[in-house]
């Protein structure tokens, strides 16, 4: 990660550097110049984003920079992040750009990039953009959107139709959801124009919430970060399951018919064991991050399936999948990658794959994830003033040794810094009978003493 790029592109408050018109134009121009140098021709790009009120003017500023540097841009309008990944690959664009801050509140925004392969941007491109931004002087923060967009973008509706056709006619081919009732929470985000159309086209009866975006209500009391909302709708409607998307719909979480949460770990378990039973999990491995529950690792191991762990972030997951030839990978947060279908995590695609498993096995979601026993897990966030290697912090290092001695191989302690916030994250999981809350609090207190900038949260 650099100064501006985190684990998933650039993200910050809209109107603050570098999410300001001049900087955004420089980002677009740099992207266009790098692609032109690589391909030797005029680069073609596609851009789209979520429903935040800042997304149109941010997209317009980036597009202006691309045009100034000789590139061309086609706009897909409101579209899930993986929709741009699909269009970039399927329609032969040199790169794709997504304007979104995923699960963050509306006042934040960000930029993600996809290469022609559908993979996220590489280090060389990020380095070039970082260098260009370093040469700029930040302007005063803007509290309101620019009075007029710095460039106009004509939205091509065929892009949205192309993505919907991919989902319903390719991923959902021959999938009959008649007889299924599904609660859907679109987080007032990018899934809103797609999820209900997709599911109803396949025959499902839907109960939809979070589909009335107004530019400011994205993720507000809904979506994956407020999963209890779709759980309540599922129970009230008597639906067979519920699906909640995040703001840019690159991930989803589920609830079963009783409103119990089914997260990314459980989906990886269900999909891996099903594919393995059909002899289609080759090689017999799954990729997940260091945040995935130890119970997933043990449950897969019992069935002869290896779990390969990576740092947090779907980019790290995909890199490991490509390295090992793995067909399935993802994160506990619900970001799942099915390599045969897409190199990007896609909440809508994940929903279809899970529903196909349930239809073909004629089972409920609760039955599909049976067999996964979780270790109790806790996560504590500690605000910090700087991010120094944990092993260089005397109190932290000593406390970690003490906690790991108490775990004695019956649990796992993980320390990491957030890629987008000034937070240290303490994750601890262990077998029943071990007080993980107390142990995690001890580590958090040590971090607070060495690096603290507030109180653990």
UniProtKB/TrEMBL annotation:
CDD domains assigned: GlmM
Q: What's the name of the protein?
A: Phosphoglucosamine mutase
Primary role: Catalyzes the conversion of glucosamine-6-phosphate to glucosamine-1-phosphate.
Q: Where does Mg(2+) bind?
A: 102, 246, 248, 250
Which EC number(s) does the record attach to this protein?
Answer: 5.4.2.10
- The gene is glmM
The Alpha-D-phosphohexomutase C-terminal domain, residue ranges:
379-445
Q: Which PROSITE patterns match?
A: PGM_PMM
InterPro entries associated with the record: A-D-PHexomutase_a/b/a-I, A-D-PHexomutase_a/b/a-I/II/III, A-D-PHexomutase_a/b/a-II, A-D-PHexomutase_a/b/a-III, A-D-PHexomutase_C, A-D-PHexomutase_C_sf, A-D-PHexomutase_CS, Alpha-D-phosphohexomutase_SF
Show the taxonomic lineage: Bacteria, Pseudomonadati, Acidobacteriota, Terriglobia, Terriglobales
Q: Which PANTHER family match?
A: PHOSPHOGLUCOMUTASE (ALPHA-D-GLUCOSE-1,6-BISPHOSPHATE-DEPENDENT), PHOSPHOHEXOSE MUTASE
Report domain Alpha-D-phosphohexomutase alpha/beta/alpha positions: 4-136, 163-259, 263-371
Task: Provide the positions where the record notes the PTM Phosphoserine.
Answer: 102
* Modifications made to the protein after synthesis: Activated by phosphorylation.
Catalytic center residues: 102
Note on how the cofactor is bound = Binds 1 Mg(2+) ion per subunit.
Pfam families membership = PGM_PMM_I, PGM_PMM_II, PGM_PMM_III, PGM_PMM_IV
């Amino acid at each position: 990660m650099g100064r501006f790029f985190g684990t998933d592109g650039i993200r910050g408050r809209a109107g603050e550097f570098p999410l300001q018109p001049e900087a955004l134009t420089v980002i677009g121009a740099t992207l266009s110049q790098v692609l032109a140098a690589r391909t030797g021709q005029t680069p073609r790009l596609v851009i789209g984003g979520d429903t935040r009120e800042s997304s149109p003017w941010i997209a317009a500023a980036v597009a202006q920079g691309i045009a100034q540097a000789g590139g061309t841009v086609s706009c897909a309008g409101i579209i899930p992040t993986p929709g741009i990944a699909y269009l970039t690959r399927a329609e032969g664009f040199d790169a794709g750009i997504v304007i979104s801050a995923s699960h963050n509140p509306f006042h934040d925004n960000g930029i993600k990039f996809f290469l022609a392969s559908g993979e996220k941007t590489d280090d060389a491109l990020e380095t070039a953009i970082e260098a260009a931004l370093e040469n700029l002087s930040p302007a005063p923060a803007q509290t309101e959107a620019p009075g007029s967009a710095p460039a106009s973008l004509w939205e091509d509706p065929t892009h949205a139709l192309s993505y919907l056709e991919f989902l319903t006619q390719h991923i959902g081919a021959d999938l009959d959801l008649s007889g299924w009732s599904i609660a859907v929470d679109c987080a007032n985000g990018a899934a809103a124009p797609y999820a209900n159309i997709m599911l109803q086209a396949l025959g499902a009866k839907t109960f939809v919430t979070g589909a009335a975006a107004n530019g400011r209500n994205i993720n507000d009391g809904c979506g994956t970060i407020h999963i209890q909302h779709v759980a309540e709708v599922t129970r009230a409607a008597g639906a067979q399951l519920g699906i909640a998307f995040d703001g840019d719909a690159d991930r989803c979480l589920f609830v079963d018919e009783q409103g119990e949460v089914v997260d990314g770990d459980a989906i990886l378990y269900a999909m891996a064991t099903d594919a393995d039973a059909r002899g289609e999990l080759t090689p017999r491995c799954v990729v997940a991050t260091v945040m995935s529950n130890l119970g997933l690792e043990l449950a897969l191991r019992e069935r002869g399936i290896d779990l390969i762990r990576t740092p947090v972030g779907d980019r790290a997951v995909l890199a490991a999948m490509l390295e090992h030839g793995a067909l399935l990978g993802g994160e506990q947060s619900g970001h799942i990658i099915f390599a045969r279908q897409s190199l990007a995590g896609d909440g809508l695609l994940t929903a279809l794959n899970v529903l196909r498993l349930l239809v073909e096995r004629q089972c409920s979601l609760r039955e599909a994830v049976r067999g996964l026993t979780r270790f109790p897990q806790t996560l504590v966030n500690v605000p910090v003033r700087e991010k120094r290697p944990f092993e260089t912090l005397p109190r932290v290092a000593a406390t970690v040794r003490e906690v790991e001695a108490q775990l004695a191989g019956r649990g796992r302690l993980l320390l990491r810094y957030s890629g987008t916030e000034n937070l240290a994250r303490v994750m601890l999981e262990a077998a029943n009978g071990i007080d993980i809350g107390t142990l995690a609090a001890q580590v958090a207190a040590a971090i607070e003493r060495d690096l603290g900038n507030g109180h653990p949260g």
